[in-house]
């Protein structure tokens, strides 16, 4: 069977890695906060980079990752963070970036890529990420990508959402286990942070595309309520601003501890600092 499917950037016959490379590049173009490059076999990161897999297996590598985040906070904010704050900020950045790489592919293409820890590298000096497109992809039956070698076809939308939830959970679980002693919070709080970053990544992508209501619906369909190991759902609600318009918001389940660095700039959805009245003032 010949599949009429091409990699958009080259016009060459499609491969899973080629399709993913193009989607990852589209994500980085749309989302300025996503500091990720797609791996180039000719030009690799320096020896100061490390992989997501190394973070989970080597304590000295994990400590170098956290030390680099500590240094960036000191330089950027002229603030000396507690060890658990630097670890929380590093985890938040990792979970948001890797989560958006997976959820963004799903949102843009209706496909699910399974990013393995070894597919991700982090540059210690800059904190930027590099992604090597892997071979694993899931899609719906009507998607022509389903005819490519190794692609998993699932029967319906909810099965595809389940694939995404499992892909994110499988990637994050080893890192949460490794980093938990540095953050000093239990599994529910750590998985709450991952839940927040998964939801907020989709929400952010929708805003960047001018499709915020659609992204809120997509995030809610992905996490309508607690689905283990995610301890809660997207849980969006709407607030009415001073102009009479309604704005979606939610209260985060976990906390990246940014409020300890810049209290006056804490996220409107921060569970440590926000209340209903403060949210109304921010949204009005």
The CATH architecture assignment turns out to be Orthogonal Bundle
Radius of gyration, whole Å: 19 Å
How many beta-strand elements? 9
The total domain count is 1
InterPro entries: FhuF_C (IPR024726)
Protein name: (2Fe-2S)-binding protein
Domain Ferric siderophore reductase C-terminal: 254-272
What can be said about this structure in brief?
The protein is an alpha/beta fold and 284 residues long.
What does this structure look like?
This is (2Fe-2S)-binding protein. Pfam families: FhuF_C. InterPro entries: FhuF_C (IPR024726). The protein has 284 residues and is of the alpha/beta class. The chain has a single domain (16-224), classed as Transferase(Phosphotransferase), domain 1 (Orthogonal Bundle). It is 48% helix and 10% strand. The protein is built from eight helices and nine strands. It has helices at 16-30, 52-57, 59-77, 83-109, 157-183, 187-208, 212-222, 276-283, and strands spanning 36-38, 49-51, 112-113, 120-123, 129-131, 137-139, 152-153, 237-240, 246-249. The protein has a four-stranded mixed sheet with strand order 1-5-4-2. β4 and β5 (129-131) form a beta hairpin. α3 crosses α4 (83-109), α4 (83-109) packs antiparallel against α5 (157-183) and α4 packs across α6. The longest helix has 27 residues, at 83-109. The radius of gyration is 19 Å and the shape is globular. The chain starts with 15 loop residues before the first helix and ends with a helix. Mean pLDDT is 88; it is low at 275-284.
């Amino acid at each position: 069977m010949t599949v009429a499917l091409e990699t958009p950037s080259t016009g060459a016959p499609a491969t899973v890695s080629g399709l993913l490379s193009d989607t990852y590049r589209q994500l980085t173009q749309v989302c300025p906060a996503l500091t990720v490059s797609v791996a180039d076999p000719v030009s690799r990161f320096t020896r100061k980079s490390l992989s997501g897999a190394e973070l989970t297996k080597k304590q000295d590598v994990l400590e170098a990752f956290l030390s680099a985040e500590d240094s960036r906070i000191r330089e950027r904010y002229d603030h000396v963070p507690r060890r658990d704050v630097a670890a929380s900020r590093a985890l938040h950045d990792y979970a948001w970036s890797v989560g958006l790489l997976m959820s963004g592919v799903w949102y843009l293409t209706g496909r699910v890529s399974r990013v393995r820890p070894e597919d991700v590298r982090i540059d210690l000096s800059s904190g930027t990420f590099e992604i090597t497109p892997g071979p694993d992809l899931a899609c719906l039956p009507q998607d022509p990508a389903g005819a490519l070698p190794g692609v998993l076809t699932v029967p319906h939308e909810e099965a595809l959402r389940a694939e995404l939830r499992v892909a994110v959970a499988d990637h994050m679980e080893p890192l949460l286990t490794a980093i938990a002693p540095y953050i000093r919070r239990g599994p529910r709080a750590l998985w709450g942070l991952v839940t927040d970053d998964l939801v907020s990544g989709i929400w952010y992508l929708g805003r960047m595309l001018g499709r915020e209501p659609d992204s809120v619906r997509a995030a809610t369909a992905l996490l309508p309520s607690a689905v283990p190991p995610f301890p809660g759902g997207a849980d969006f609600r709407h607030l009415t601003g001073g102009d009479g318009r309604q704005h979606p918001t939610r209260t985060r389940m976990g906390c990246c501890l940014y409020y300890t660095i810049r209290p006056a700039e804490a996220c409107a959805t921060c569970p440590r600092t926000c209340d209903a009245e403060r949210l109304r003032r921010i949204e009005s």
